[in-house]
Write a structure and sequence with these properties.
Shape: globular
Structural class: mainly alpha
Low-confidence stretches: 445-468
Distance between the termini: 40 Å
Number of domains: 2
Mean pLDDT: 80
CATH class of the largest domain: Mainly Alpha
Strand content: under 5%
Largest sheet: none
Length: about 475
Amino acid sequence: MVVLDGTIVSVALPSIQADLGYSPSGLAWVVNAYLVPFGGLLLLAGRVGDLVGRKRVFVTGLVLFTAASLLCGAATTPGLLPAARFLQGTGGAVLSAVTLGMVVALFPEPKERAKAIGVYGFVQSAGGSIGLLAGGALTQALDWHWIFFVNLPVGVVASVLAARTLRDERGPGLGRSTDVLGALLVTAALMLGVYAIVGAGDHGWGSAHTLGSGGGALTLLAAFALRQARAADPLLPLRVLRSRRTAGALTAQALMVAGMFGFQFLTVLYLQKVLRFDQVDTGLGVFPVSVVIGALSLGAAPRLIAHFGPVRVLVPGLVLVAGGLALLGEVPAHGAYASDVLPALFPLGAGFALAMPSLATLAMSAAAPGDSGIASGLFNTAQQVGAAFGLAVISTLASSRTADLLDGGSGAAEALADGYRLGFRVGALFVLGALVAAVTVLRRRTATRQQEAPERQDAPVSARSHVR
């Protein structure tokens, strides 16, 4: 539901603008008002889950997200919708931050955990693709309000099931030693950083707005790091980041998502503006990626990770993703879907199906039971920041190339296609950066570790601690 909401809105933006009378800059805040709190609160929400219990945080986020969806759907003024979207982004962050940590806690056995993380990866991809398809269908058949109302039955049912079936956990609680200052610093830093990134396309990467916001975010992050090194009970224990596997997985995750998120954005534009697909056909056009991801994530990928280990599965996965983006980097101005787009979707889907659960396994493998919430929050934060950064960079470069060609007298189709080709190639470079992180930072450091079985590498934390 949360991932779906990230794409379902994009298809309905023209209808929202026409109905509520937004300016182009005002319309951007229908998206940005969701992204800023979502990216900024993931880390804090993950740590709160460790302290007060992940089930409590999960259900709270689910209720808030569902209630905010109702407000979004009922919005009739330009000011109410961004405010409701801010609340929805807050609920989405609280809900998402603890999800992966709950999956790891619920499935401690390596093979079952690999299957569960495969389902987690599939749901993320399917939510994005279904959002494009459902957004177009609902907007065309009814109106844009229903892209938010569809969350209500899902949210109500999920809240009831979560309350009844999830195990109640008790953390140490929010006592006097809770790092309130650290929470304020990191939340402000992440929100300001996401704000700088999402506004860079409008203001320019070298503008005072972007540099000032980005510099402020980095300053706050530095203050947060200093606070964590000195606090008796830090919000983000530095031991979580000292793990080579965790740090490498977060880096690779951010870079891979930067490329994949740009792929989804550019593919939608290419299908609609160059190949002249309508909204529903566009959703169907990108859906094969989710079909391939589902076929592999729910079957082959977990078995491969259990047998070979996550790093050996991650590397070919990233190669496939980069290859698919490189193929899209050749799309012509007068192309055809079957010959120019569809062949690239299969390696993209297969690569993501292998890479995503591998990265999740690596990111969570070194986290102690009491740190699984913060590790889950870190993983989702890396994903969100990577998506925002990748989209901002790729969209800016693509639109700049198109504008330059149009100024030079090129036709609209040729200029658009050339801009999209550049964007796809930049996305491939992001994924190649993730590949470099995978083969350097994540490689096993000793011959002893090379000889360990995958089950030992990915064993539950409690078992590994006992062995040590």
